[in-house]
């Protein structure tokens, strides 16, 4: 018997076995298979790398230089000829010139990403809010998402008035296959019909769309240097602390000590951590990973 015929007979036998299962039990069988598949893929999509679970604080910015952070820019790839990412006086200066990021060299799981930032002077020249992000659980190749600007990841939004919103950014892996970034959350629908995180609310899946933080102001117009009435981020010119706790397949976002967003059944559940450059100057004085308690 050839290997091909042996495989076909095995498949036929499995199919007959499945049909012998009572219809009422088939759902449970398929559910367990789905959960098994999710568990298999809830790690970075890098064939040569296993994510690290921090057991002690990991200093991503040493206050002197970029260290092991890897820069990627849409226009110049792994080179930074314009000095978009520089260090001066113990602060990372992200000029906002173009689109890209500085990422961790290694992938991580079960960590709390801590970022302290404030806005610089430069904007993109437009009328809308200053914009950047903390990108977590990033997978796939550099520039694999956002038309060459980002990696496939979950974005913790830093844009004014939107601090703590979550966005799944889908891109492609090394083989050109879509990285199925997605997350679930309990939400309440506001008067503007937008979903905001609310503990115990209606379960929603988010694929390529924005999960607003709990008190994101309805009908907020996102005009430059405006604030929502319930914003917890610091005023312009002051430092804001953002913590993104990635534990298992859950994400919790904390801004200046207040929990503003939560998601679960997140995929990917591990990966690189990125500082985004998106047209506006940003200053960073702390960037580190802490173990999950």
Q: What key attributes describe this structure?
A:
2 domains, 293 residues, Jelly Rolls, disordered N terminus, 7-stranded antiparallel β-sheet, 11-stranded antiparallel β-sheet, mainly beta, globular, 35% strand
Record the SSE blueprint:
Blueprint: H1 3-20, H2 23-41, E1 58-59, E2 70-73, E3 85-88, E4 91-94, E5 99-103, E6 111-119, E7 133-139, E8 152-157, E9 166-169, E10 182-189, E11 195-197, E12 202-206, E13 210-211, E14 240-247, E15 250-255, E16 258-267, E17 272-278, E18 282-291
Antiparallel strand pairs: 1-18, 2-5, 3-4, 4-18, 5-17, 6-14, 6-18, 7-8, 7-17, 8-9, 9-13, 10-11, 10-12, 10-16, 14-15, 15-16
What can you see in these coordinates?
The protein contains two helices and 18 strands. With 293 residues, the chain is mostly beta strands. It folds into two domains: 1-41; 46-291, Exo-inulinase, domain 1 (Jelly Rolls), CATH 2.60.120.560. Strands 1, 3, 4, 6, 10, 11, 12, 14, 15, 16 and 18 form an eleven-stranded antiparallel sheet that branches. A seven-stranded antiparallel sheet has the order 2-5-17-7-8-9-13, with no helix packed on it. The longest helix is centred in the N-terminal third of the chain and has 19 residues, at 23-41. Mean pLDDT is 89; it is low at 1-21 and 23-44.
